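quick one, two chains, predict together pls
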Amino acid sequence: AAGVIQSPRHLIKEKRETATLKCYPIPRHDTVYWYQQGPGQDPQFLISFYEKMQSDKGSIPDRFSAQQFSDYHSELNMSSLELGDSALYFCASSLVPPSGKYNEQFFGPGTRLTVL
Amino acid sequence: TQLLEQSPQFLSIQEGENLTVYCNSSSVFSSLQWYRQEPGEGPVLLVTVVTGGEVKKLKRLTFQFGDARKDSSLHITAAQPGDTGLYLCAGASGGSYIPTFGRGTSLIVHP
């Protein structure tokens, strides 16, 4: 079965540079979520999109932005990178269930961002 | 303050032993997921529990949701080295689709 695809898998950037992470959800999934996971930490929710519209916002810094495109893939744009942005960035996708049913998120393999 | 408390934080056992991991909260969850994550990889969904008192089995893994839907446990029977990984619980509540994750239990099973 097709899974969530993320690219690149590894990215090395200098401080103050920009980075763009890409996410391709499972086919027919309509919702994409972005998470940041620091070393030894649990995934922290950044932002989500449902049918190309921002649906929820978590602890995403103002330096970051994201969008979902017509083909449902999503991109996370990160500017003015800081050392503290070094982390694993995960994308997850789901199909919003009918009212009253539960939601299941499926995660991609992640992008490891290292800021030097 | 972590909404979901997982215990133990670390667990190192020998192959063949049994173990239980706990996920506790003061909040009521509409659903709760368990994930297993290997280093440098994304969390892999193991199970979703939604009904208070529900028990689900996945081979040697048994998942239980508390009657009040505030806590859950994962029991592994006869652990194998392939079970090594970070086990995360994640719960959604209040009509939100965004789950809150616990800090995880890091399990190492020695051959």
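Chain A touches chain B through 26 residues (CB under 8 Å).
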